[in-house]
């Protein structure tokens, strides 16, 4: 569903005038956007722009310093069971010897105390989640033997096992080769189209999502801009956002952000780091 | 009652009952210890407990009481100080060092108890009295109940901590609860297997079980079976061949470990 189709529909995520951060200084302020249901929004920005902070605010783990966050019309803490997070896989122990289905099952109603005695229900939910990301073949594989792309699939399945309506994906393309990146982007699009999930997808590079994501939320310089990729990832908008002259070149349908003759793949932290 | 030959004596019955209880609770907790890569922590808790036991004896308290109090205190300390994975071994090792330094001081002051100290360090399962047996059984039951209550949050915190935190699982609270459960089970296992040999119950059987099965439920069950069989065979062997039970149990645990490394399915390495 394109954003224009969703006009008038109740937004899945509504953020108004948000300022949030871990320390005293917010990572960003005055960020306002809405995300319609069954849509895919890319979240980009350099390191430290507040992508993780924004996710924490959406999950109700961080109190806004100003502004408001509504998830499906509720406060984030009350909407928790409708939101799934796919965390960065870099922090997973690589040597786990458990089967894929155990990894997914562990997330099923994990906040409840006591033994998981509803075995049939668990098996059903795990089976559905694995099928949604076409990972049935990973059910009995040991985690430690899987490739980066396969692990990403299981992380998706884990986040889906409690049947959320909104899926937040934290850098799911990190450390993947281009082929695996395409597969992961395709999976996200499929979850939106077939299951009506609302997806917010953070990444360093918008290019793999051009033509797939409806919108981009670009965080930089303590602020954020949201809109279609072709309207946001432009020299004019990014110059305002960063407060320094920025240029965007297009080649073969990809966009490259440029600052002072240094070329970046749509996210400028390499340059920032080099300075 | 007609006891079989090896159970005719009271102290053997105490040893079997205590050893079984400790093996069940210890291998269940140990399954998570191995999954969480906290084997050094488990080892250290036993040795820190040794210092507590020696200190308690010195001031005239029960060594078991000293064990329980110090392992619990160490568990709280280790949960909150040096809890970051990258620094965990450092934090555990330094506390262990301090505890052992104090332990040797207590022994030095009260050298009459060198034999008791040996019993704590290497286990004295055949010297367990009836009261101590009931304490060990009671604590083991408590440990199993606590684990059953904690099971689901503990499993997700162990498998994917970031996911757990994002979905509102109180990660620190779950970790603390697990560390206290571990400390309790270590404290009652030390007199049985010895502070220096907690690996025999807490690490050997669960590590072998995890090499042999990729399912959590089966792994827990297999862990228990291996630990209990080890303890029973160890006690039997020490009854018929007069070597310390600890030696036999440690040997069996090592044999199980070896078998699990050799008989490992292909592709399961890493």
From TrEMBL, chain B:
Natural source organism: Pararhizobium mangrovi
Pfam families per the UniProt record, alphabetical: ABC-3
Family per record: Belongs to the ABC-3 integral membrane protein family.
Location(s) in or outside the cell: Cell membrane; Membrane
GO CC, alphabetical: ATP-binding cassette (ABC) transporter complex
UniProt xrefs under InterPro entries: ABC_BtuC-like, ABC_TroCD
Name by which UniProt lists this protein: Metal ABC transporter permease
Transmembrane segments: 15-35, 47-80, 92-112, 133-154, 174-204, 216-237, 243-260
